[in-house]
C-alpha cells in the first residue's frame, strides 16, 4: 500500500470469505439452438465494459432452451472475468446469464459491504497483481489463488463515502460518453446529407462534378526489407505510418507505433504535414489529413499535394471516406478485401465548386473539433478518477475523520 500504514479500522479480508461461483453454458458453443435474438443477455468476457459496467448490449443472447444450463445473474450483482482478459469487474446493470469465464459473487454474502466499493477493491487488487505479473498480464488464475487474495475494507460508512465520490465521477464520464456519441451521430448524419446533396447550404446551387481519382497523382512506395530488421527503426527517428497509425476523425494517431531510422528513410517515402493519405491493405479505406511530417509504409497511398490545388483537402478527405464507405456497403461482409490500382483510378467522387467545399468542410471540421475537445476532456477526467481512486483506496486521502 505504497508504504502507507493501514488504518486500524480498515480490515484485510480474504476473497474466500465470500461465496461465489462461475457461470456456465451448454456445449458445444456453436450450437445455434443455444442463442436467440429474443433471448436474455448472455455475458462473456468482451461484454464486461469500462467504468465497471456491462456493455449496453451483449454480443449474444441466450435462448430459453439454454437458460437452465447457464447461470442467471440478477441486476446489481458483482462479477469478474477469469479467462481471456482477467480482472475486468462490473456491477451488472441488468439481469443476464453468465458464461463460465465469469465469476459471480453471491449477493447474500455482500450485505456488509457497499457493492460499488467492493468492485473498486477487486479492481485495485487485480491491478496490483498485474503490476507483479510478467508483461503486466495475469495469464491464469486458480480457485485457490483467488480464495487467498486479500482486499482492504474500511467501515461501511467510509466505503459509502468513497463510493459516492468515485461513482459521481463515473456518472460525469457517462454523460461525456453520451454527448460524444450524440455529436458523432449528428456529424455522421450531416456528413451524409451534405455530401449526397440531400441537403444544400443556403446560397449554393451550382452543379457538382463527378471526378475520377485517376485525375489526381498519387503514389505508394516501400520500406526496406525485411520488416523486422532493427536497424530500420530508432526511438529518435521520424514517425513511420502504417495502417494502425491512421486513427479516428481523419487524423493520424498522436504517436506512431514505430519510428523510422535515418538509414531507412531514403528507402521509404517522406510525407509532409497536411497531406492526404488512405490505407490500401489490412483495413482498407481509412483516410487521414496528416498533422505532422512522417514516412509512410507501402500499405498507404499518398496523394501528391501539387495536384490538390483546386480542392479543399478536408472536403477531399470526406469525399474519399464517403466513397470507400459506399464500396464497403456493396462488399460481402462490409469489408473491402482487396483493391487494384485500376479500380482505384476508376473510383468517382463528387466535387462541388471550391467555395461550397470550404463551407461544408468548415461545418464538419467544426463538429470534429467539438468531438476531439470532448474526448480530451474525457481523458482528463479518467486520469483524475484514476489518481483519486489510487489515493482513496491506498488511504493516502481520507474522506472521513480518523
From TrEMBL:
Domain annotation Type I restriction modification DNA specificity: ranges: 40-171, 249-379
GO biological process: DNA restriction-modification system
Keyword Lyase: no
Keyword DNA-binding applies: yes
Keywords: DNA-binding, Restriction system
GO molecular function, one term: DNA binding
Domain of life, per lineage: Bacteria
Similarity-based family: Belongs to the type-I restriction system S methylase family.
Protein name per the record: Type I restriction modification DNA specificity domain protein
Organism: Helicobacter pylori Hp P-13b
Origin organism lineage: Bacteria, Pseudomonadati, Campylobacterota, Epsilonproteobacteria, Campylobacterales
Amino acid at each position: 500500500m505504497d508504504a502507507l500504514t493501514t488504518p486500524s479500522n480498515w480490515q484485510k479480508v480474504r476473497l474466500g470469505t465470500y461465496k461465489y461461483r462461475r457461470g456456465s453454458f451448454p456445449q458445444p458453443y456453436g450450437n445455434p439452438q443455444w442463442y436467440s435474438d429474443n433471448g436474455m443477455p448472455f455475458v462473456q468476457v468482451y461484454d464486461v465494459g469500462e467504468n465497471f459496467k456491462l456493455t449496453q448490449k451483449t454480443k449474444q443472447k441466450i435462448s430459453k432452451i439454454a437458460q437452465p444450463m447457464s447461470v442467471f445473474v440478477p441486476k446489481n450483482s458483482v462479477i469478474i472475468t477469469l479467462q481471456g482478459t482477467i480482472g475486468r469487474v462490473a456491477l451488472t446493470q441488468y439481469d443476464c446469464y453468465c458464461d463460465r469465464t465469469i465469476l459471480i459473487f453471491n449477493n447474500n454474502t455482500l450485505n456488509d459491504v457497499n457493492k460499488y466499493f467492493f468492485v473498486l477493491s477487486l479492481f485495485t487488487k487485480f491491478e496490483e497483481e498485474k503490476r507483479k505479473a510478467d508483461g503486466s498480464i495475469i495469464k491464469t488464475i486458480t480457485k485457490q489463488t483467488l480464495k487467498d487474495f486479500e482486499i482492504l475494507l474500511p467501515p461501511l460508512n467510509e466505503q459509502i463515502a468513497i463510493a459516492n465520490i468515485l461513482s459521481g465521477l463515473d456518472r460525469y464520464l457517462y454523460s461525456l460518453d453520451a454527448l460524444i456519441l450524440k455529436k458523432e451521430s449528428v456529424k455522421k448524419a450531416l456528413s451524409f446529407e451534405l455530401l449526397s446533396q440531400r441537403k444544400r447550404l443556403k446560397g449554393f446551387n451550382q452543379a457538382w462534378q463527378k471526378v475520377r481519382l485517376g485525375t489526381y497523382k498519387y503514389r505508394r512506395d516501400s520500406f526496406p526489407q525485411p520488416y523486422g530488421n532493427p536497424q530500420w527503426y530508432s526511438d529518435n527517428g521520424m514517425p513511420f505510418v502504417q495502417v494502425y497509425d491512421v486513427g479516428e476523425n481523419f487524423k493520424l494517431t498522436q504517436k506512431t507505433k514505430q519510428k523510422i531510422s535515418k538509414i531507412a528513410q531514403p528507402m521509404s517515402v517522406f510525407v509532409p504535414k497536411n497531406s492526404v493519405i488512405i490505407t490500401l491493405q489490412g483495413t482498407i479505406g481509412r483516410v487521414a489529413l496528416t498533422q505532422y511530417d512522417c514516412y509512410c509504409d507501402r500499405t498507404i497511398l499518398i496523394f501528391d499535394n501539387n495536384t490538390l490545388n483546386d480542392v479543399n483537402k478536408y472536403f477531399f478527405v470526406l469525399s474519399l471516406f464517403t466513397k470507400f464507405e459506399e464500396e464497403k456497403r456493396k462488399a460481402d461482409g462490409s469489408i473491402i478485401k482487396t483493391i487494384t490500382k485500376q479500380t482505384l483510378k476508376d473510383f468517382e467522387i463528387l466535387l462541388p465548386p471550391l467555395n461550397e467545399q470550404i463551407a461544408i468542410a468548415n461545418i464538419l471540421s467544426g463538429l470534429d473539433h467539438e468531438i476531439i475537445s470532448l474526448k480530451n476532456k474525457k481523458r482528463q477526467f479518467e486520469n483524475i478518477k484514476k489518481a483519486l481512486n489510487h489515493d482513496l483506496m491506498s488511504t493516502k486521502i481520507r474522506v472521513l475523520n480518523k
